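Can you give me the bound-state structure? Components:
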Amino acid sequence: MDYQYFQDLLNEIILKPNEIDGVIVFDPENALSLYHNMKHDKKRHGDEIFVNHDAIAGSLSGSHQMAETLKTFGENSKRGKLQYGIFQLSDGILVLYFLEIHGKPIVVAFISGTPQGLGLMLHSSNANIKKIEQALNQLLASVA
Amino acid sequence: MWPFNVMNNPEEALNPYVIGNAVGNSSAFVGREDVLQDVCDVLQHPQQNAIVLYGQRRIGKTSILKELDAKLAEAGYLPIFFDLQDKGKLPLEQVNQELADKISDKLNSQSKLTLEEILYHWQSPKKLVILFDEFEAFAGNELEERQASETFFPYWRDILSKVDKAKLNFVFTLGRKVEDLNQKAMSLLKAIPSKKVSLLGEDATLLLIKLSDSENNKTLKWDEGAIKTAWTQTGGHPFITQILCYCIWNHLYETKRHSKPKVRVTDVKANLTKALETGENAFQWLWDGLPATEKLVTSILASTGNKAITTQALEKLLKDNGLRIRTNERQKTTNILKDWDVIESVAENKFRFRVELFRRWIAENRQLPKVQQELDSSETRADNFYKASQNLWSNSQLEPAIDNLEKALKLNPNHIGANDLLTETYLDLKNWEKAWKTAKAFSLLRPQFARPLLNQALEGLIASQDEDTQLHYYEETLKIDPEHADVKQKWQTIWQQRGENAYRIGNLEKALEAFQRIGTTEKIIEIQNKLIQEINQTQRIVEAFLIELVQETTTLDGIFLYESQGKKVYLGTKNGVDAIQKSIIANSLFGSKENQTDKISILGLREIVERIKDEQNDREFEGAFFQFATSILSIYLIPDAKVYEEGGNKNEEVFMMAGIISTNNVIGRFIEESKKVVTRIKEQLPIDIIESNKIG
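Here's the bound-state model for the whole set.
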């Protein structure tokens, strides 16, 4: 698996009519983005909003610690494994998946520039997160 | 006591120790090789012809000059010993002529020459070495000395620059460092090399101690332990060593009947008190050489015994004794005391007395109160300002009196009389603020004397002030003088009144605060119990409200509220409040009360939300939803629920977090219902929940 395959994967997600305007993979410990989509759907807002990927990674730094708390909560209250988190904003939606790749926390954020369309977003993000996780496992192993 | 035994001794034994005169050129002169070498180096140096020897009083500077006087003459020089003591007030011409006459005498000159004629036209094949003793006699503070220094030092600077360096040499002794002299003196001496005359080393001190067991004098036998004890007690101070040994010698010849008695440790110890008495003038002389602040510090140090003391311990002692010495000045003081061989460093920030006998003398004769009294009168300049201010005050010239008193206190902040009179003067002028400040400073020195003045100043100060201001001044006063019964009483009365008023109108927190300040235990317990009841009641009301809300929904199972001030979690579930659920939520999501940080708990969500808002064009956070395998949890923030202006926890913003749980994981309906619930919480939440938890 090479970088181009992964880049194509992210770009394909964006170009589908699924309300997702951006995908960012970031390292929450260092608050820096690792990968993100390179193409945008011109008809949507993806090129205007959430363009600074490092800023998004920065604003979500520490989210992996919060996720750890929630995982503990899920276990203690017998509510099962944490699957994802949604941040509903007045002008957008963030769907976050908290992964662990080679022992390091990695967050995958699916971003919408509008507050609507959570259903399609979840459908698409749930459908793609496994592929992204597998690709990241290989890609990050190759750069380590 | 007349030494009968000595008189009866057929060998006519003589005490070899000298306690009056300088010992140069005698067998009692020991050590000092380093100093003599430095002088020789200067004499032989083509470009240098002067050296300054400095050291504390009675350290042996004059003895060194006397030794030089003798040894240089033997070496072919023409040394002239010239003592400037008591000449500081004489006209320059007279001093110069005395010196010129002395040189002429040595040269056997028949004609009367001026000093310039001698120095500028030196004809003798011998090199002239003028040994000036007590050179700082012209650098004193008295008027005549100041006037003399105006002409004396520039004159000698001129001489030194013009004379033939190969033929004319000068040795100056000073009782202080060159840097501590006045400007005129310093301008003459600062370019001249200097050498400190310090305490004797152990070897030289042993030689001195054993003067009575040497080639020239075999009158005592010294036990090794006795030598060691004598060394420990004198620390190598040549004059004090002479005194102690002199006393021991006399004591043994007064009491022992056989010749050449042996000195034992007990003899040394038995003569310590006698040495202190015999050396009274010398110790006094040494003491007088210390500046004011150094005297205060030395007195305190001496009272702590002969152990080493840390800087921190000294600071505490100063504070405990009400002495105000600024940090810089304190460091300067310890440095001066080290320079003068009074103390020595034994480790970093740790020092002790160098001469134990001197410490004992101070501890016995110069305790702090006595030193303070002494300083009041001996700090001449400060005292002069004080005396001048007394006259002005008596003539009702209060402003000029203040001017003088402030000058006196600048010179000596611990001047009792000046502190006292300055406070009184401000009181006379009804300048209450300044009177109070001065009285506070005075309180640090003499709380009992200052108390009535402090009272008067306070009364004037608070006469037309509101209660808060009165409290402020009472509290400030009590910080300085916690035992001030009158002020304490007034302060307590105000808080008592405040507590009772607040209690009467049901403001229990205010009442509690007031009674806690004055420590009224019964009232505190009574109010705390009442508040606990109120909290429990609040808990019940809030949780009933949450249960009501959750029962109106179809998808929600439970609602919890987290309140940051009291760090409390309220929980309402469909099946009633479940203590286990509550405990799981509280501990899993928020950590324990004692170990609660944003890093480890859901509280970090607040920080993330703030960052998103800042970095994403003010997009407002509406809620977070976390999908678990069998459940959904949503978190909403209810910001700015209440901000305390005072009391509370460091004026922190108090916020609430609403969490909604559903075991039905249909997220769409859950979101809709949870949004409605949060809107109702925001609108209808009993706001007293936070207020009640302030003391929780």
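A couple of observations. Chain A is about 40% helix and 25% strand. Helices of chain A lie at 3-15, 53-59, 63-76, 118-143.
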